[in-house]
Design brief:
By secondary structure, the chain is an alpha/beta fold. It folds into 2 domains: 300 residues, no CATH class; 54 residues, no CATH class. The chain has 13 helices and 25 strands. Strands 5, 6, 8, 9, 11, 12, 14, 15, 17, 18, 20, 22 and 24 form a 13-stranded mixed beta sheet that branches. The N terminus is likely disordered.
């Protein structure tokens, strides 16, 4: 990315400010075994978690960098700060007003307290490496719902964490999953008891604040039999010219007849490498939905997946990506049919503005003997400008004759005739393009609660500024 591009992006990026926070502990750049041991010691973790961290470190050092997907050549692991501890000790009994002013101001400007009051069942906020605030409404606490940051979840419920941690995404899965296992900090821990339906969303907000920082949250969500929950996460970072790294791991478990929806609204600044591994397991008659929007970062490589391990399970992935100049969104989804009579649907919508690139990368796999499985894949790409790029890499491994698989793909451009027609009805060129884009993304917008749909529309409009005409 050229300095001119970065300068333009800084002007347009709404969340580019940063807090001059003084940290309690700030690790020197670079990844070392003694740092990993120090992180575990500072967090007062059990010995088994330290062993997992060290295993992750060994795998990370052994695995080569991926050579597929986006360009990772400019990541310098020796320049990244892997752990930053805010100068604040979180106490669950404290209220929002008890948080230090600089931390509070950061999340006030993003609108978290107002969102919590109006339409959330619970909220957790992470600042660099640590959660600084989390709260669950009394109504859900009384029903046995657990919602903590991951560090607190490990302290309070080590047996649950030990049972599920790394079972869906082991360190050996890929280089960045190994890195996360080694240095993870923060993230969300949720457990919903059998039959409990959480009627309002739970939300986490992740903020990278420091320059050259890495953020490596770990999220674990378990929804027990017949229970339901909707979890929403948002992500932003300051405007820095140096690269930052976000490498999260998310594991979801939906037990029999459970429903779990996971929504992401990602708007990192254009110097962030967003390299995330997300995987879910859906047991008998369970339903898992990934609703994923990627509108920021320099490079995103993210492919939420659902392993359908129980008969009658359903997995659905809606992946939305928008890429401005200098950005590459390499996104998609995976559905693995490991039980009979399972269904899946992958919908990918991408918009590449002039100079931006989007890629769909997906997999549908049906194992032999898994009868009557159905899957539908729909990939639609919209290009705006002569230098816009889009690619599609669909993979299908169908080993069962009874499987029914549909795949459709379209690539289109906003045409002069469309713009002329709408302008003849009194719209400006920007208004006309915005109407076409929002119509293209309507399927995603309809999946969001009203307040988030408004925020999503605003993010897309910000991406479009200067891209037409």
């Amino acid at each position: 990315m050229t300095p001119e591009t970065l300068s333009t992006a800084k002007k347009e990026y709404e969340y580019g400010w940063h807090s001059d926070h003084r940290y309690k502990f700030k690790a020197p750049p670079g990844l070392r075994e003694d740092l990993i041991m120090d992180i575990s010691r500072r967090k007062e973790e059990p010995e088994w978690m330290l062993e997992k961290r060290l295993e992750g470190f060994r795998v990370f050092m052994e695995k080569p960098m991926p050579t597929w997907g986006g360009n990772l050549s400019e990541i310098d692991f020796n320049e990244i700060i892997y752990y930053l501890q805010p100068d604040y000790k979180k106490d669950e009994s404290q209220s929002w007003d008890d948080i230090p002013e600089d931390l509070k101001e950061t999340f006030e400007r993003i609108g978290i307290p107002e969102a919590e009051r109006k339409f959330l069942a619970g909220v957790s906020n992470q600042f660099d490496s640590e959660s600084v605030y989390s709260k669950l409404k009394d109504a859900w606490q009384g029903k046995g719902v657990l919602f903590f940051d991951m560090d607190t979840g490990l302290k309070k419920h080590p047996d649950i964490v030990k049972k599920y941690f790394g079972t869906l995404i082991p360190p050996s899965d890929n280089k960045f999953a190994a890195l996360n296992t080694a240095v993870w900090s923060g993230g969300s821990f949720i457990y919903v008891p059998p039959g409990v339906k959480v009627g309002l969303p739970l939300q986490a907000y992740f903020r990278i604040n420091a320059e050259n920082a890495g953020q490596f949250e770990r999220t674990l969500i378990i929804v027990d039999e017949g229970a339901e929950v909707h979890y929403i996460e948002g992500c932003t970072s300051p405007s820095y010219s140096t690269n930052a790294l976000h490498s999260a791991v998310v594991e979801l478990v939906a037990h029999e007849n459970a429903t779990l929806r996971y929504t992401t609204l990602q708007n990192w600044y254009s110097s962030v490498y967003n390299l995330v591994t997300k995987r879910a397991k859906a047991e008998k008659n369970a339903r898992v939905e990934w609703i994923d929007y990627n509108g920021g970062s320099r490079l995103t490589m993210k492919y939420p997946s659902v392993y359908l391990t129980g008969e009658g399970a359903h997995g659905e992935i809606v992946s939305i990506a928008t890429a401005q100049e200098g950005q590459h969104q390499d996104t998609g989804g995976k559905a693995i049919h490991a039980a009979p009579n399972t269904t899946s649907k992958i919908t990918s919508k991408s918009i590449s503005f002039d100079g931006g690139r989007t890629s769909y990368r997906g997999l549908v796999k049906v194992y032999p003997g898994m009868e009557n499985c159905k899957s539908k894949i729909q990939c639609d790409a919209l290009m705006m400008g002569p230098r816009a790029q889009t690619d599609t890499y669909p993979y299908m491994e169908i080993e069962e004759d009874s499987a029914q698989i549909e795949h459709e793909a379209t690539v289109s451009k906003i045409g002069e005739e469309q713009l002329f027609y709408l302008r003849s009805r009194g719209l400006t060129e920007d208004q006309a393009a915005s109407m076409i884009v929002h119509g293209f993304l309507d399927e995603f917008e309809r999946t969001l609660p009203m307040e988030y749909a408004v925020e999503f529309n605003r993010l897309v409009d910000l991406q479009m500024e200067g891209s037409v005409g």
